Amino acid sequence: MTDTADKTTRGVETGGIAAAVRGAARKGPPPVHLWNPPYCGEMDLEIRPDGSWIHDGTPIGRPAMVRLFASVLKREGDRFFLVTPVEKLGIRVIDAPFLAIDADIGADAITFTTNVGDVVTAGPDNPIRVEQRDGAPRPYVHVRRGLDALIDRKTFYRLVEAAEPGPDGQLLLRSQGAEFALEG
User: Fold this and answer.
1) What region holds the DUF1285 domain (predicted)?
2) If residue 49 lies in a helix (H) or strand (E), which one and from where to where?
3) pLDDT digits (tens, 9 = 90+) for 97-130
4) Is 59 helix (H, G, I), strand (E, B) or coil?
């Protein structure tokens, strides 16, 4: 192993989440779905429905830090974790970990942008769904590996405008050959 590679390996082992996050920024999204490190406890980190990330009661003000933490986010069942190859820390997610803040609505595809910079096109692998909560629609799009984005209000209104009535009267969207009802 080269001296540089050795330092990088030691940095991940000793630097934990922060080192993995820095490494993710250099190489693209890490393969968190392949990592199954031991559970190391809970981190006082909460992701709120408005897209804010709160650590120890204080919002994380650096968007780059939020994006980096989002890159090592993993879902297992109903729980969410920040993971590296050597550790796993539990965090709280109030609704969905991401917020879809914009959409490019084309004739054959709907492509969303999230608050953490993910770009995802709705389709069979990334469905749009709408749940009813307290009498109000809660729209989501699947982003990656079990992680969803809540679609913000302005974007949802644009989707409703672009939708067409289906045979049963429900509003439908089409993207990459799939159909999505806008009513839950």
Assistant:
1) 30-96, 97-182
2) none
3) 999 999 999 999 999 999 999 999 999 999 999 9
4) strand
